[in-house]
């Protein structure tokens, strides 16, 4: 029989040691910790980009009781990023890659006898290097034994445990939708002469592989009916493994998008990082379950699990809840010449360990890999090798990649995976919201036979910041709502998008960030880092995607003090009609979908109530004489906004309201802009060269208004006014 012992307790953490022997010696004074553990739970989330990256040690004694069994294996479910395992001073294993499981056999290496001592020392390293991904990305690279460590005792005849962290069993269902049946192939790896395999009540005794036919197959049908079968394999020795699986078909069409079990099934959802405020990436099963509850509340039917292999417990939850998953490796941002083998190793482990999960629809080759790397033959070859590896190991699933927004749509790298997606941040980092619409329209028109998706989009929001005139860069909840309201409508008008994933469901740690009033956090989440607060934008998607739970939500509850005669009230609901009450008086009724917008006079303190069906929500707002300073993050931008709203513009002449591309078509106005930009380029160095040498960026900038470009570059009010005066003197 197989026995699994979790090694949670008894560990000593040693932050600095030059060798295993020194780590063992220092362990007596080491910090007692429980595993899962990360040493970056605090310093990886507080900003400054100064979190500890190096080699730390975990030391533990193994008792004779824990080590009982004919064959003994040590299992690490997550050791970030490179781990070395020492037993009694001897190195017995090394693993490169912080997100996949690995095992090492202890049989024959343990000291025996009553007085025997077996000391385990594990070094874990998350420092900069040139071979192990990730090395450059917008998230914290936590170090530690951040998932469980287990001892696995098995009989002499047992299922394979070492090869790429294999589960020892592989299940491949092939569904015949027309006849309502499925053939299920079950493969096993072991050192016994035969195995007994059971599926759906039928048992076969075979050497290694069995095929089962299921009539009237019960489909794994997404969030509506995620039915799971179980395959169980047992050896004569008593060692046993099992795997849940689902019978389903996945496909993608350039016009219809994603197809589940033969029908159109638009994938609309979010991305997720695996960390939590104050805990880092050392999550518990309860943490994973809470995240899934929030996902189901939102109504999402797909997840992009970025940017690495996630915990098996979370893939299990996706299986159980019918969430279609994009799984990927951390081949991200910057290609490393010496990292090719590591990309192949991490992909091989991802597929080996996650193959049986019915939730996984696609394997992701890379993310924004051209952001800091040229598209050359070396990069293309790395992607071809990854793509070929995926298809050899798993011909049942498609491959994809997430492309950075400035990648030319004609790039040859887009021809490698089966399908593609783009990460676009128009309306936040660059450009205007409408440029997202234009991008996909242009792509789909030029490549009508290609499958394209929307893999990242988002806008940062700090729930402390608010504005009645929201604009990109102000970090307000109100702008995040405007942004996602636009993107939701854009997506719904383009059903050919095979999958769309909001970046991100939760705020997450990026220790190099210091913006939007917080240190060390990316605040694009629809939910705060601690999972305690759902931002208003969360309810935009809940209104569109969750049709099972009637609700109504008043946006702006945290925007209590407003200095205006008339104010806007936004309401999110999945009901077709919303009624708005002010001080218990019905002031308006509106029919529509998702987001309902009202305007009401503001004269003092008011109780606002929204009703939709049997649901209601209330908030209190009040008029004040001066703007609430604590609501404003970027005071300079707010000044520009207020001035620009009031400025009178002659529409027959050029102004900073016009697009850069339109201005440049006029020789006189274009010369003014070119001179200004040349001066700015001389002060920006490499950044300016990157823009100048990138035609895609040039086209994107050409679609932006000058006021948008100037504000994003940090230009002051006087400079903008001066340029506007010059342009207003040039007739169109």
Notable characteristics:
single chain; 732 residues; alpha+beta; Jelly Rolls; Immunoglobulin-like; eight-stranded parallel beta sheet; six-stranded antiparallel beta sheet; 15 helices; 42 strands; 31% strand; globular
Model description:
With 732 residues, the chain is α+β, with helices and mostly antiparallel strands. Among the domains are: 156 residues, Sandwich (Jelly Rolls); 85 residues, Immunoglobulin-like; 63 residues, Immunoglobulin-like (Sandwich); 93 residues, no CATH class. 23% of the residues lie in helices and 31% in strands. Strands 31-30-29-28-27-26-25-32 form an eight-stranded parallel β-sheet. Strands 3-2-4-10-7-8 form a six-stranded antiparallel β-sheet, covered by helices on one side. A hairpin with a 3-residue loop joins strand 22 and strand 23. Helix 2 runs parallel beside helix 3. The longest helix has 17 residues. The chain starts with a strand and ends in a 5-residue tail after the last helix. About 1% of the residues have low confidence.
Brief overview, please?
With 732 residues, this protein is of the alpha+beta class. Among the domains are: 3-158, Jelly Rolls, CATH 2.60.120; 166-250, Immunoglobulin-like, CATH 2.60.40.10; 561-623, Sandwich (Immunoglobulin-like), CATH 2.60.40; 635-727, no CATH class. Helix 4 runs parallel beside helix 5 (377-393).
């Amino acid at each position: 029989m197989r026995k699994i012992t979790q090694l949670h307790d008894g560990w000593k953490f040693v932050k600095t040691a030059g060798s295993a022997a020194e780590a063992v010696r220092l362990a007596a004074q080491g910090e007692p910790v429980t595993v899962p553990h990360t040493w970056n739970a605090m310093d990886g989330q507080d900003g400054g980009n100064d979190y500890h990256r190096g080699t730390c040690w975990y030391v533990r004694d193994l008792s004779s009781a824990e080590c009982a069994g004919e064959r003994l294996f040590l299992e690490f479910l997550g050791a970030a990023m490179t781990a070395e395992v020492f037993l009694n001073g001897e190195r017995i294993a090394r693993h490169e890659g912080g997100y996949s499981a690995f095992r090492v056999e202890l049989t024959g290496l343990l000291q025996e006898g009553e007085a025997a001592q077996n000391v385990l020392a594990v070094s874990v390293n998350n420092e900069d290097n040139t071979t192990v991904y990730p090395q450059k990305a917008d998230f914290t690279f936590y170090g530690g034994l951040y998932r469980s460590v287990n001892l696995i005792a098995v009989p002499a005849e047992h299922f394979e445990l070492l090869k790429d962290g294999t589960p020892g069993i592989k299940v491949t269902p092939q569904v015949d939708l027309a006849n309502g049946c499925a053939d299920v192939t079950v493969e096993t790896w072991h050192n016994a002469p035969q195995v007994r395999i059971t599926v759906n009540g039928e048992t076969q005794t075979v050497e290694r592989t069995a095929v089962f036919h299921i009539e009237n197959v019960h489909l794994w049908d997404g969030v509506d009916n995620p039915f799971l079968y179980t395959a169980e394999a047992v050896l004569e020795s008593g060692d046993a493994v099992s795997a849940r699986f689902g019978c389903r078909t996945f496909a993608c069409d350039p016009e219809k998008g994603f197809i589940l079990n033969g029908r159109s099934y638009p994938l609309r959802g979010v991305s997720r990082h695996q960390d939590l405020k104050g805990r880092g990436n050392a999550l518990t099963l309860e943490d994973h379950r809470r995240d899934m509850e929030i996902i189901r509340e939102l109504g999402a039917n797909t997840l992009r699990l970025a940017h690495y292999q996630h915990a098996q417990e979370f893939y299990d939850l996706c299986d159980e809840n019918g969430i279609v998953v994009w799984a990927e490796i951390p081949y991200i941002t910057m290609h490393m010449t010496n990292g090719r083998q590591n990309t192949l190793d991490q992909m091989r482990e991802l597929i080996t360990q996650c193959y049986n999960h019915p939730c996984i629809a696609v394997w992701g080759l890379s993310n924004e890999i051209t952001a800091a790397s040229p598209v050359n033959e070396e990069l293309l070859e790395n992607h071809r090798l990854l793509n070929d590896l995926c298809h050899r190991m798993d011909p049942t699933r498609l491959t994809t990649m997430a492309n950075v927004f400035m990648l030319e749509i004609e790039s040859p790298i887009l021809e490698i995976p089966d399908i593609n997606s783009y990460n676009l941040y128009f309306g936040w980092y660059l450009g205007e919201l409408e440029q997202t619409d234009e991008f996909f329209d242009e792509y789909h028109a030029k490549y009508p036979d290609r499958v394209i998706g929307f893999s990242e989009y988002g806008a940062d929001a700090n729930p402390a910041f608010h504005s009645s005139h929201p604009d990109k860069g102000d970090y307000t909840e109100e702008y995040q709502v405007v942004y996602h309201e636009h993107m939701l409508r854009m997506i719904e008008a383009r059903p050919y998008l095979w999958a769309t994933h909001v970046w991100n469901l939760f705020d997450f740690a990026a220790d190099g960030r210091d913006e939007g009033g917080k240190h060390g956090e990316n605040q694009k989440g629809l939910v705060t880092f601690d999972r305690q607060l759902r931002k208003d934008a969360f309810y935009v998607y809940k209104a569109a995607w969750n049709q099972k739970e009637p609700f109504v939500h008043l946006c702006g509850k945290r925007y209590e003090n407003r200095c205006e005669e008339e104010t806007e009230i936004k309401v999110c609901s999945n009901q077709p009609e919303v009624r708005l009450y002010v001080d218990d008086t019905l002031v308006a009724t509106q029919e529509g979908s998702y987001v309902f917008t009202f305007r009401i006079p503001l004269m003092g303190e008011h109780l606002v109530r929204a009703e939709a069906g049997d649901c209601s929500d209330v908030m209190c707002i009040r008029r004040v004489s001066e703007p609430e300073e604590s609501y404003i993050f970027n005071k300079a931008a707010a000044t520009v906004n207020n001035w620009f709203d009031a400025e009178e513009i002659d529409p027959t002449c050029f102004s900073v309201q016009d697009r850069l591309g339109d201005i440049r078509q006029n020789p006189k106005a274009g010369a003014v802009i070119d001179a200004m930009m040349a001066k700015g380029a001389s002060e920006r160095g490499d950044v300016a060269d990157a823009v100048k040498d990138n035609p895609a960026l040039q086209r994107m900038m050409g679609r932006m208004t000058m006021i948008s470009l100037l504000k994003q570059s940090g230009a002051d009010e006087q400079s903008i006014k001066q340029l506007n005066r010059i342009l207003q003197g040039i007739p169109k």
